[in-house]
Amino acid sequence: MAVLIDGKEVSRKVRNEVKDRALLLKRQRDIIPGLAVVLVGEDPASQIYVRGKKRACDEVGFLSREFLLPSATSEEDLLSLIKDLNEDRSIHGILVQLPLPEHLNGESILEAIDPRKDVDGFHPYNVGKLFSGTSYHRSCTPLGIIELLDRYRISIEGKEAVIVGRSNIVGKPLALMLLERHATVTICHTRTRNLAETTRRADILVAAAGRREMIRGDMIKEGAAVIDVGINRSETGKLFGDVLFTEAEPKASFITPVPGGVGPMTIAMLLFNTLNAASRSL
Ligand code: NAD
Description:
This protein is of the alpha/beta class. The chain has helices at residues 7-29, 44-59, 75-87, 106-112, 124-131, 140-151, 171-180, 195-199, 245-248, 263-280, and strands at 3-4, 34-40, 63-69, 93-96, 160-164, 184-188, 204-207, 225-228, 232-233, 239-240, 254-255. It has 10 helices and 11 strands. The strands form 3 sheets. Strands 1-11-8-7-5-6 form a 6-stranded parallel beta sheet. A 3-stranded parallel beta sheet has the order 3-2-4, with helices on both faces. It is globular. The structure holds nicotinamide-adenine-dinucleotide. Nicotinamide-adenine-dinucleotide is lined by residues 141, 164-167, 169-171, 188-190, 192, 195, 208-211, 214, 229-232, 262-263, 266. Residues 141, 164-167, 169-171, 188-190, 192, 195, 208-211, 214, 229-232, 262-263, 266 line the site of nicotinamide-adenine-dinucleotide (NAD).
């Protein structure tokens, strides 16, 4: 029987710690951490995420400002808003909700954000800092995974870590974070041959492919820690992970459920990054 990793509980603890540190920052330096969230267009999932971020900010005593822009917003106008937010001393974190409408160049917009305020950790500066082992803001979902491993005292050093998925927001940054913590890291993707052979080597197996229940029991080594990042919604709206839980759970030593595993950690780490940005501000 695996230990169930309770992401909701860990997320609550992280958010409480952030709240305490924010109170201290206010008391000692009169700084209230401020997060600006920019949403372009009416994507319903993005609207839910943005509302969730605002609520999370309110709960920990941050200032939060939402910018809900019409989908026809020009690149020039968006860049001008980012410039204003870069200069706004009450704002310490800027988050542009992805995906952006197609007519906007996501890369140049992310690059316009002051890296010190890039609390999503997607700016090339922050990606480069992570790459060189001197990280500044680290992207929230992989950072949340490291936090879960640490809070459950799952040691990383010297372990075989296998990640299924090589996206810029999960797989690649997580690989660097695990490497930083001295794991031996393998990244798998759609062209990996003998996927099961590779995943069976893993002491720490992270599934981040976005393919419902593709990780079956026979792909898991006895005693592995299994982290499921996948969020796959069925036609009825039910959520499924990338791991077939019923087969994986008897083999794993630790396992994250979906929902309630990695998911709740992302917002907690966003608050953590925003607090750090505010603490570093002059
Ligand atoms: P993505 O589509 O950008 O990347 C998926 C990766 O998985 C690709 O690198 C691809 O090569 C690999 N892949 C796909 N099918 C595969 C297969 N059959 N075998 C091996 N590799 C395969 O996805 P993403 O943005 O990284 O997200 C991955 C999953 O994690 C999604 O379900 C997403 O919803 C979820 N996610 C959750 C959170 C969260 O919990 N907060 C955050 C980000 C993403």
